Amino acid sequence: MKTIIEPFRIKSVEPIYMSSREERESYIKDAHYNLFALPSQRVLIDLLTDSGTSGMSAAQWAGIMIGDESYAGSPSYLRFEKAVRHLMPFRYIIPTHQGRAAERILFGVAVKKGQYVLNNTHFDTTRANIESLGAFAVDLVIDEGLDPSSMHPFKGDMNTEKLTAFIADKGAENIPLCMITITNNSGGGQPVSLENIRAVSKICKKHHIPFFIDACRFAENAWFIKMREDGYKNTPVSDIVREIFSLADGCTMSAKKDGIANMGGWLALNNPAWEEQCRNILILTEGFPTYGGLSGRDLEAIAQGLEEVVQDDYLHYRIASTEYVGRHLHEAGVPVLLPVGGHAVYLDARAFLPHIPSLHYPGQSLAVALYIEGGIRGCEIGTVMFGRQPNGTEQPGKMDLVRLAIPRRVYTQSHMDYVVEVIIDVFGKRDSLQGMKIIEEPPSLRHFTARFDWRTEDHSKLEKNTAVG
Ligand SMILES: *Cc1c(COP(=O)(O)O)cnc(C)c1O
Protein backbone atom coordinates (compact mmCIF):
# COMPACT_ATOMS: atom_id res chain seq x y z
CA MET A 1 0.00 0.00 0.00
CA LYS A 2 1.23 3.51 -0.77
CA THR A 3 1.91 6.06 1.98
CA ILE A 4 -1.24 7.90 3.06
CA ILE A 5 -0.18 11.49 2.52
CA GLU A 6 -1.44 14.54 4.39
CA PRO A 7 -4.30 15.77 2.15
CA PHE A 8 -3.12 19.39 2.34
CA ARG A 9 -0.07 21.47 1.60
CA ILE A 10 1.28 24.16 3.86
CA LYS A 11 1.06 27.84 2.98
CA SER A 12 1.63 29.42 6.36
CA VAL A 13 4.05 28.05 8.92
CA GLU A 14 4.77 28.52 12.59
CA PRO A 15 8.29 28.02 13.94
CA ILE A 16 9.14 25.26 16.37
CA TYR A 17 11.77 26.62 18.75
CA MET A 18 14.49 24.00 19.00
CA SER A 19 16.07 23.27 22.34
CA SER A 20 18.76 20.95 23.63
CA ARG A 21 18.25 18.22 26.18
CA GLU A 22 20.20 20.29 28.74
CA GLU A 23 17.98 23.32 28.16
CA ARG A 24 14.87 21.21 28.55
CA GLU A 25 16.16 19.77 31.81
CA SER A 26 16.37 23.26 33.22
CA TYR A 27 13.03 24.33 31.66
CA ILE A 28 11.16 21.45 33.23
CA LYS A 29 12.89 22.01 36.56
CA ASP A 30 11.75 25.66 36.41
CA ALA A 31 8.23 24.32 35.77
CA HIS A 32 8.51 22.10 38.87
CA TYR A 33 8.15 19.06 36.61
CA ASN A 34 4.58 20.00 35.70
CA LEU A 35 4.11 20.06 31.91
CA PHE A 36 1.14 22.42 32.21
CA ALA A 37 3.54 25.01 33.65
CA LEU A 38 5.80 25.01 30.57
CA PRO A 39 5.64 27.97 28.20
CA SER A 40 4.51 26.38 24.91
CA GLN A 41 7.51 27.79 23.02
CA ARG A 42 9.72 25.50 25.09
CA VAL A 43 7.88 22.49 23.63
CA LEU A 44 8.88 20.90 20.30
CA ILE A 45 5.87 18.67 19.65
CA ASP A 46 2.82 19.63 21.71
CA LEU A 47 0.49 16.68 22.23
CA LEU A 48 -1.16 18.03 25.38
CA THR A 49 -4.58 18.21 23.72
CA ASP A 50 -6.39 18.15 20.37
CA SER A 51 -8.77 20.84 21.65
CA GLY A 52 -8.63 24.20 19.91
CA THR A 53 -5.21 23.35 18.48
CA SER A 54 -6.27 22.43 14.93
CA GLY A 55 -4.71 23.94 11.83
CA MET A 56 -7.34 25.97 9.97
CA SER A 57 -7.66 25.84 6.21
CA ALA A 58 -7.26 28.73 3.77
CA ALA A 59 -11.05 28.66 3.33
CA GLN A 60 -11.51 29.00 7.10
CA TRP A 61 -9.13 31.96 7.22
CA ALA A 62 -11.07 33.48 4.33
CA GLY A 63 -14.19 33.02 6.45
CA ILE A 64 -12.47 34.91 9.27
CA MET A 65 -12.15 37.92 6.94
CA ILE A 66 -15.80 37.91 5.85
CA GLY A 67 -17.20 37.28 9.33
CA ASP A 68 -20.04 39.74 10.00
CA GLU A 69 -19.87 41.12 13.52
CA SER A 70 -23.46 42.41 13.75
CA TYR A 71 -24.91 41.99 17.22
CA ALA A 72 -28.16 40.53 15.92
CA GLY A 73 -29.02 38.58 12.78
CA SER A 74 -25.49 38.23 11.41
CA PRO A 75 -25.27 36.30 8.11
CA SER A 76 -22.34 34.45 9.70
CA TYR A 77 -24.78 33.01 12.22
CA LEU A 78 -27.09 31.88 9.40
CA ARG A 79 -24.20 30.16 7.67
CA PHE A 80 -23.19 28.49 10.94
CA GLU A 81 -26.75 27.36 11.68
CA LYS A 82 -27.15 25.93 8.19
CA ALA A 83 -23.85 24.05 8.37
CA VAL A 84 -24.72 22.54 11.75
CA ARG A 85 -28.25 21.61 10.72
CA HIS A 86 -27.02 20.01 7.50
CA LEU A 87 -25.25 17.39 9.65
CA MET A 88 -27.31 17.51 12.85
CA PRO A 89 -30.93 18.03 11.90
CA PHE A 90 -32.22 19.63 15.12
CA ARG A 91 -34.82 22.39 15.35
CA TYR A 92 -32.86 24.80 17.54
CA ILE A 93 -29.15 25.54 17.36
CA ILE A 94 -27.66 27.70 20.10
CA PRO A 95 -24.03 28.86 19.74
CA THR A 96 -21.85 28.91 22.86
CA HIS A 97 -18.25 29.90 23.54
CA GLN A 98 -17.24 26.28 24.02
CA GLY A 99 -18.62 22.84 24.85
CA ARG A 100 -18.84 23.21 28.61
CA ALA A 101 -21.05 26.30 28.25
CA ALA A 102 -23.53 24.20 26.25
CA GLU A 103 -23.41 21.59 29.02
CA ARG A 104 -23.94 24.10 31.79
CA ILE A 105 -26.95 25.63 30.02
CA LEU A 106 -28.56 22.29 29.16
CA PHE A 107 -28.07 20.77 32.63
CA GLY A 108 -29.18 24.00 34.28
CA VAL A 109 -32.54 23.62 32.52
CA ALA A 110 -32.94 19.84 32.54
CA VAL A 111 -31.25 18.44 35.65
CA LYS A 112 -32.32 18.71 39.30
CA LYS A 113 -30.48 17.86 42.50
CA GLY A 114 -30.44 14.15 43.34
CA GLN A 115 -31.18 13.02 39.76
CA TYR A 116 -29.05 10.74 37.58
CA VAL A 117 -27.54 11.56 34.21
CA LEU A 118 -26.32 8.52 32.27
CA ASN A 119 -23.52 8.33 29.70
CA ASN A 120 -21.09 5.79 28.27
CA THR A 121 -18.34 7.76 30.04
CA HIS A 122 -18.78 11.35 31.17
CA PHE A 123 -16.03 13.72 30.11
CA ASP A 124 -14.56 15.71 33.07
CA THR A 125 -16.40 18.98 32.35
CA THR A 126 -19.65 17.11 31.73
CA ARG A 127 -19.35 15.26 35.04
CA ALA A 128 -18.33 18.42 36.89
CA ASN A 129 -21.31 20.38 35.52
CA ILE A 130 -23.71 17.62 36.61
CA GLU A 131 -22.15 17.22 40.04
CA SER A 132 -22.14 20.97 40.66
CA LEU A 133 -25.96 20.77 40.52
CA GLY A 134 -25.99 18.03 43.17
CA ALA A 135 -26.90 15.38 40.59
CA PHE A 136 -25.07 12.12 39.83
CA ALA A 137 -23.12 11.31 36.66
CA VAL A 138 -23.30 7.56 36.00
CA ASP A 139 -21.00 5.79 33.50
CA LEU A 140 -22.41 2.70 31.77
CA VAL A 141 -19.79 1.82 29.15
CA ILE A 142 -19.49 -1.86 28.17
CA ASP A 143 -16.99 -3.93 30.18
CA GLU A 144 -14.67 -4.18 27.16
CA GLY A 145 -14.37 -0.38 27.28
CA LEU A 146 -12.53 -0.68 30.61
CA ASP A 147 -10.29 -3.55 29.54
CA PRO A 148 -7.01 -2.29 28.05
CA SER A 149 -6.41 -5.61 26.30
CA SER A 150 -9.83 -5.90 24.61
CA MET A 151 -9.81 -5.46 20.83
CA HIS A 152 -13.58 -4.81 20.64
CA PRO A 153 -14.16 -2.56 17.57
CA PHE A 154 -16.59 -0.27 19.44
CA LYS A 155 -15.21 0.02 22.95
CA GLY A 156 -17.25 3.19 23.49
CA ASP A 157 -20.61 1.35 23.32
CA MET A 158 -23.00 1.70 26.24
CA ASN A 159 -24.04 -1.43 28.10
CA THR A 160 -27.75 -1.55 27.24
CA GLU A 161 -28.51 -4.23 29.84
CA LYS A 162 -27.03 -2.07 32.57
CA LEU A 163 -28.95 0.89 31.13
CA THR A 164 -32.29 -0.97 31.29
CA ALA A 165 -31.51 -2.26 34.78
CA PHE A 166 -30.53 1.21 35.99
CA ILE A 167 -33.77 2.73 34.68
CA ALA A 168 -35.79 -0.06 36.36
CA ASP A 169 -33.90 0.48 39.62
CA LYS A 170 -33.98 4.28 39.92
CA GLY A 171 -37.10 5.04 37.86
CA ALA A 172 -37.24 6.97 34.59
CA GLU A 173 -38.63 10.01 36.45
CA ASN A 174 -35.24 10.37 38.21
CA ILE A 175 -33.29 10.31 34.96
CA PRO A 176 -33.70 13.66 33.18
CA LEU A 177 -31.17 12.85 30.46
CA CYS A 178 -29.26 10.00 28.93
CA MET A 179 -26.18 10.91 26.88
CA ILE A 180 -23.66 9.12 24.74
CA THR A 181 -20.20 10.54 24.03
CA ILE A 182 -18.80 10.01 20.51
CA THR A 183 -16.00 9.13 20.42
CA ASN A 184 -15.66 8.18 24.09
CA ASN A 185 -12.94 10.66 25.07
CA SER A 186 -12.39 9.59 28.69
CA GLY A 187 -12.47 5.98 27.52
CA GLY A 188 -9.52 6.48 25.13
CA GLY A 189 -11.24 8.03 22.09
CA GLN A 190 -13.03 4.75 21.36
CA PRO A 191 -15.98 4.81 18.94
CA VAL A 192 -19.63 3.95 19.49
CA SER A 193 -21.46 1.83 16.89
CA LEU A 194 -24.64 3.00 15.17
CA GLU A 195 -26.28 -0.20 16.32
CA ASN A 196 -25.59 0.79 19.92
CA ILE A 197 -26.73 4.40 19.43
CA ARG A 198 -29.95 3.05 17.88
CA ALA A 199 -30.49 0.65 20.80
CA VAL A 200 -29.87 3.33 23.43
CA SER A 201 -32.17 5.73 21.59
CA LYS A 202 -34.93 3.11 21.54
CA ILE A 203 -34.63 2.37 25.25
CA CYS A 204 -34.71 6.10 26.06
CA LYS A 205 -37.77 6.64 23.84
CA LYS A 206 -39.61 3.80 25.52
CA HIS A 207 -39.05 5.39 28.92
CA HIS A 208 -39.53 9.00 27.72
CA ILE A 209 -35.97 9.91 28.70
CA PRO A 210 -34.46 12.63 26.48
CA PHE A 211 -31.41 11.28 24.63
CA PHE A 212 -28.52 13.68 23.90
CA ILE A 213 -25.21 13.16 22.16
CA ASP A 214 -21.92 14.63 23.38
CA ALA A 215 -20.84 15.19 19.81
CA CYS A 216 -17.25 16.54 20.10
CA ARG A 217 -15.65 13.94 17.78
CA PHE A 218 -18.70 12.98 15.73
CA ALA A 219 -16.82 12.85 12.40
CA GLU A 220 -14.06 10.58 13.72
CA ASN A 221 -16.77 8.34 15.19
CA ALA A 222 -18.63 8.25 11.87
CA TRP A 223 -15.44 7.23 10.10
CA PHE A 224 -14.99 4.29 12.48
CA ILE A 225 -18.59 3.26 11.73
CA LYS A 226 -17.88 3.44 8.00
CA MET A 227 -14.73 1.31 8.43
CA ARG A 228 -15.89 -1.19 11.04
CA GLU A 229 -19.68 -1.58 11.09
CA ASP A 230 -21.47 -3.87 8.67
CA GLY A 231 -23.46 -2.10 6.00
CA TYR A 232 -21.78 1.33 6.02
CA LYS A 233 -18.74 0.84 3.78
CA ASN A 234 -20.37 2.70 0.90
CA THR A 235 -22.34 5.23 2.92
CA PRO A 236 -21.07 8.83 2.75
CA VAL A 237 -19.80 10.04 6.12
CA SER A 238 -22.27 12.92 6.16
CA ASP A 239 -25.15 10.43 5.79
CA ILE A 240 -23.81 8.39 8.71
CA VAL A 241 -23.56 11.58 10.76
CA ARG A 242 -27.17 12.55 9.95
CA GLU A 243 -28.34 9.06 10.87
CA ILE A 244 -26.58 9.30 14.26
CA PHE A 245 -28.16 12.64 15.12
CA SER A 246 -31.61 11.74 13.82
CA LEU A 247 -31.71 9.21 16.67
CA ALA A 248 -31.22 11.89 19.35
CA ASP A 249 -33.23 14.70 20.93
CA GLY A 250 -30.27 17.04 20.98
CA CYS A 251 -26.52 17.41 21.35
CA THR A 252 -23.76 19.38 23.01
CA MET A 253 -20.66 20.14 20.97
CA SER A 254 -17.20 21.61 21.31
CA ALA A 255 -16.17 23.12 17.97
CA LYS A 256 -12.57 22.98 19.27
CA LYS A 257 -12.56 19.30 18.32
CA ASP A 258 -14.35 18.21 15.14
CA GLY A 259 -15.33 21.79 14.30
CA ILE A 260 -11.63 22.21 13.37
CA ALA A 261 -11.90 25.67 14.92
CA ASN A 262 -9.86 27.27 17.68
CA MET A 263 -12.89 28.24 19.75
CA GLY A 264 -16.63 27.65 19.90
CA GLY A 265 -19.40 25.19 20.57
CA TRP A 266 -23.14 24.75 20.49
CA LEU A 267 -26.20 23.22 22.05
CA ALA A 268 -28.81 21.77 19.69
CA LEU A 269 -32.22 20.42 20.62
CA ASN A 270 -35.81 19.84 19.53
CA ASN A 271 -37.84 20.55 22.66
CA PRO A 272 -39.35 24.09 22.38
CA ALA A 273 -39.91 24.50 26.13
CA TRP A 274 -36.30 23.68 26.89
CA GLU A 275 -35.12 25.86 24.02
CA GLU A 276 -36.86 28.89 25.47
CA GLN A 277 -35.28 28.39 28.88
CA CYS A 278 -31.86 27.67 27.39
CA ARG A 279 -32.08 30.77 25.25
CA ASN A 280 -32.85 32.89 28.32
CA ILE A 281 -29.79 31.56 30.16
CA LEU A 282 -27.73 32.09 27.01
CA ILE A 283 -28.72 35.75 26.86
CA LEU A 284 -27.94 36.12 30.55
CA THR A 285 -24.49 34.54 30.48
CA GLU A 286 -23.16 34.02 26.93
CA GLY A 287 -24.72 36.55 24.58
CA PHE A 288 -27.51 37.17 22.10
CA PRO A 289 -28.80 33.98 20.39
CA THR A 290 -27.22 34.78 17.02
CA TYR A 291 -23.69 34.85 18.42
CA GLY A 292 -23.74 33.22 21.89
CA GLY A 293 -20.32 34.38 23.06
CA LEU A 294 -18.60 33.97 19.69
CA SER A 295 -17.47 36.45 17.07
CA GLY A 296 -19.05 36.35 13.63
CA ARG A 297 -15.66 35.26 12.31
CA ASP A 298 -15.61 32.27 14.70
CA LEU A 299 -19.02 31.21 13.38
CA GLU A 300 -17.67 31.37 9.81
CA ALA A 301 -14.61 29.28 10.72
CA ILE A 302 -16.82 26.63 12.33
CA ALA A 303 -19.26 26.53 9.38
CA GLN A 304 -16.37 25.93 6.98
CA GLY A 305 -14.69 23.46 9.37
CA LEU A 306 -17.85 21.35 9.42
CA GLU A 307 -17.73 21.01 5.65
CA GLU A 308 -14.11 19.89 5.75
CA VAL A 309 -14.27 17.52 8.71
CA VAL A 310 -16.62 15.04 7.04
CA GLN A 311 -14.51 14.66 3.89
CA ASP A 312 -13.22 11.13 3.29
CA ASP A 313 -9.66 12.22 2.44
CA TYR A 314 -9.39 14.19 5.65
CA LEU A 315 -10.79 11.44 7.90
CA HIS A 316 -8.78 8.74 6.18
CA TYR A 317 -5.58 10.69 6.90
CA ARG A 318 -6.69 11.70 10.39
CA ILE A 319 -7.47 8.22 11.70
CA ALA A 320 -4.52 6.67 9.84
CA SER A 321 -2.06 9.13 11.36
CA THR A 322 -3.15 8.34 14.92
CA GLU A 323 -3.08 4.64 14.16
CA TYR A 324 0.37 5.04 12.57
CA VAL A 325 1.89 6.26 15.84
CA GLY A 326 0.18 3.55 17.89
CA ARG A 327 1.10 0.76 15.51
CA HIS A 328 4.80 1.66 15.33
CA LEU A 329 5.03 1.88 19.10
CA HIS A 330 3.20 -1.42 19.53
CA GLU A 331 5.49 -3.13 17.02
CA ALA A 332 8.50 -1.90 19.00
CA GLY A 333 7.06 -3.49 22.14
CA VAL A 334 6.01 -0.22 23.79
CA PRO A 335 2.84 -0.80 25.85
CA VAL A 336 0.00 1.24 24.27
CA LEU A 337 -3.76 0.98 24.71
CA LEU A 338 -5.32 -0.90 21.81
CA PRO A 339 -7.11 -0.51 19.54
CA VAL A 340 -5.79 3.02 19.02
CA GLY A 341 -8.58 5.60 19.33
CA GLY A 342 -9.39 8.49 17.03
CA HIS A 343 -7.59 11.48 18.49
CA ALA A 344 -4.89 10.18 20.80
CA VAL A 345 -2.42 7.43 21.58
CA TYR A 346 -2.27 6.31 25.19
CA LEU A 347 0.95 4.91 26.64
CA ASP A 348 0.41 2.44 29.47
CA ALA A 349 2.90 3.90 31.95
CA ARG A 350 2.27 1.21 34.55
CA ALA A 351 3.42 -1.49 32.11
CA PHE A 352 6.14 0.79 30.66
CA LEU A 353 7.67 1.43 34.12
CA PRO A 354 6.81 -1.63 36.23
CA HIS A 355 9.51 -0.72 38.77
CA ILE A 356 7.76 2.52 39.69
CA PRO A 357 4.76 1.99 41.99
CA SER A 358 1.57 3.90 41.13
CA LEU A 359 1.91 6.16 44.15
CA HIS A 360 5.27 7.28 42.75
CA TYR A 361 3.43 8.46 39.60
CA PRO A 362 4.88 6.45 36.70
CA GLY A 363 2.74 8.46 34.26
CA GLN A 364 4.25 11.74 35.42
CA SER A 365 7.75 10.27 35.32
CA LEU A 366 7.21 9.06 31.76
CA ALA A 367 5.64 12.35 30.61
CA VAL A 368 8.60 14.28 32.05
CA ALA A 369 11.09 11.89 30.42
CA LEU A 370 9.44 12.35 27.00
CA TYR A 371 9.80 16.08 27.43
CA ILE A 372 13.43 15.98 28.53
CA GLU A 373 14.45 13.49 25.85
CA GLY A 374 12.53 14.91 22.93
CA GLY A 375 10.61 18.06 23.87
CA ILE A 376 7.32 16.16 23.55
CA ARG A 377 4.49 17.33 25.79
CA GLY A 378 1.86 14.73 26.68
CA CYS A 379 -0.51 14.54 29.60
CA GLU A 380 -0.54 12.19 32.60
CA ILE A 381 -3.92 10.52 33.06
CA GLY A 382 -3.59 8.38 36.13
CA THR A 383 -2.71 8.60 39.78
CA VAL A 384 -1.72 12.27 39.65
CA MET A 385 -5.08 13.14 38.08
CA PHE A 386 -7.34 10.73 39.98
CA GLY A 387 -5.33 9.38 42.94
CA ARG A 388 -6.32 11.80 45.64
CA GLN A 389 -9.45 10.66 47.50
CA PRO A 390 -12.09 12.97 48.99
CA ASN A 391 -10.79 12.07 52.49
CA GLY A 392 -7.30 13.27 51.56
CA THR A 393 -5.66 9.83 51.21
CA GLU A 394 -3.98 8.58 48.05
CA GLN A 395 -4.93 5.55 46.00
CA PRO A 396 -3.62 4.31 42.65
CA GLY A 397 -5.77 5.47 39.72
CA LYS A 398 -7.56 2.79 37.64
CA MET A 399 -4.71 3.04 35.15
CA ASP A 400 -1.53 5.09 34.80
CA LEU A 401 -1.51 6.49 31.28
CA VAL A 402 0.23 9.18 29.28
CA ARG A 403 -2.05 10.61 26.62
CA LEU A 404 -0.52 11.89 23.41
CA ALA A 405 -3.36 13.82 21.78
CA ILE A 406 -2.80 14.65 18.14
CA PRO A 407 -3.89 18.10 16.92
CA ARG A 408 -5.73 18.08 13.59
CA ARG A 409 -3.73 19.03 10.46
CA VAL A 410 -0.81 20.39 12.48
CA TYR A 411 2.04 17.88 12.45
CA THR A 412 3.47 15.94 9.50
CA GLN A 413 4.49 12.32 9.28
CA SER A 414 8.12 13.25 10.03
CA HIS A 415 7.01 14.91 13.27
CA MET A 416 5.21 11.70 14.15
CA ASP A 417 8.24 9.57 13.19
CA TYR A 418 10.28 11.71 15.57
CA VAL A 419 7.71 11.16 18.35
CA VAL A 420 7.90 7.40 17.81
CA GLU A 421 11.74 7.51 17.88
CA VAL A 422 11.84 9.46 21.13
CA ILE A 423 9.38 7.12 22.84
CA ILE A 424 11.27 4.02 21.71
CA ASP A 425 14.47 5.64 22.93
CA VAL A 426 13.00 6.28 26.37
CA PHE A 427 11.60 2.75 26.37
CA GLY A 428 15.15 1.44 25.85
CA LYS A 429 16.34 3.07 29.05
CA ARG A 430 13.13 2.73 31.03
CA ASP A 431 14.90 1.01 33.95
CA SER A 432 16.74 4.23 34.73
CA LEU A 433 13.59 6.35 35.14
CA GLN A 434 12.78 7.39 38.71
CA GLY A 435 9.48 7.85 40.46
CA MET A 436 8.21 11.27 41.46
CA LYS A 437 6.69 12.94 44.48
CA ILE A 438 4.34 15.88 44.87
CA ILE A 439 5.88 18.82 46.72
CA GLU A 440 2.90 21.16 46.61
CA GLU A 441 -0.69 20.74 45.44
CA PRO A 442 -3.89 22.78 45.28
CA PRO A 443 -7.16 21.59 46.90
CA SER A 444 -8.74 20.40 43.62
CA LEU A 445 -7.80 19.49 40.02
CA ARG A 446 -4.23 19.20 41.25
CA HIS A 447 -2.72 17.96 37.99
CA PHE A 448 -2.89 21.45 36.46
CA THR A 449 -0.75 23.22 39.08
CA ALA A 450 0.91 20.67 41.39
CA ARG A 451 4.69 20.87 41.83
CA PHE A 452 6.75 17.69 41.59
CA ASP A 453 10.25 16.46 42.20
CA TRP A 454 12.13 13.23 41.62
CA ARG A 455 11.78 10.57 44.30
CA THR A 456 15.51 10.23 44.80
CA GLU A 457 17.72 13.27 44.62
CA ASP A 458 19.95 11.33 42.25
CA HIS A 459 18.52 10.77 38.79
CA SER A 460 21.95 10.79 37.19
CA LYS A 461 21.39 7.33 35.73
CA LEU A 462 18.81 8.77 33.35
CA GLU A 463 21.33 11.37 32.19
CA LYS A 464 24.19 8.93 31.87
CA ASN A 465 22.46 6.74 29.33
CA THR A 466 21.39 9.57 27.16
CA ALA A 467 22.72 10.88 23.92
CA VAL A 468 22.86 14.64 23.40
CA GLY A 469 19.92 16.15 21.59
C1 LIG B 1 -13.71 18.83 25.10
C2 LIG B 1 -14.90 18.08 25.49
C3 LIG B 1 -15.97 18.70 26.16
C4 LIG B 1 -15.93 20.15 26.60
O1 LIG B 1 -15.69 21.03 25.57
P1 LIG B 1 -14.89 22.40 25.80
O2 LIG B 1 -14.98 23.10 24.50
O3 LIG B 1 -13.49 22.03 26.19
O4 LIG B 1 -15.58 23.14 26.89
C5 LIG B 1 -17.08 17.92 26.43
N1 LIG B 1 -17.12 16.62 26.11
C6 LIG B 1 -16.11 16.00 25.48
C7 LIG B 1 -16.22 14.55 25.11
C8 LIG B 1 -14.96 16.70 25.15
O5 LIG B 1 -13.95 16.07 24.53
CATH architecture of the largest domain: 3-Layer(aba) Sandwich
The residue ranges in which pLDDT falls below 50 over 5 or more consecutive positions are: 458-469
Q: Can you tell me the CATH superfamily of the largest domain?
A: Type I PLP-dependent aspartate aminotransferase-like (Major domain)
How many whole angstroms does the radius of gyration measure?
A: 22 Å
Mean pLDDT reading: 94
Just give the CATH class of the largest domain.
Answer: Alpha Beta
CATH topology name of the largest domain, in short, is Aspartate Aminotransferase, domain 2
Largest sheet: 7 strands, mixed
Bound molecules: pyridoxal-5'-phosphate
Number of helices: 17
Identify the quaternary structure here.
Answer: single chain
By secondary-structure content and strand pairing, the structural class works out as alpha/beta
Approximately how much helix is present in the residues? 25-40%
**What count of structural domains?**
2
Strand order of the largest sheet: 2-8-7-6-5-3-4
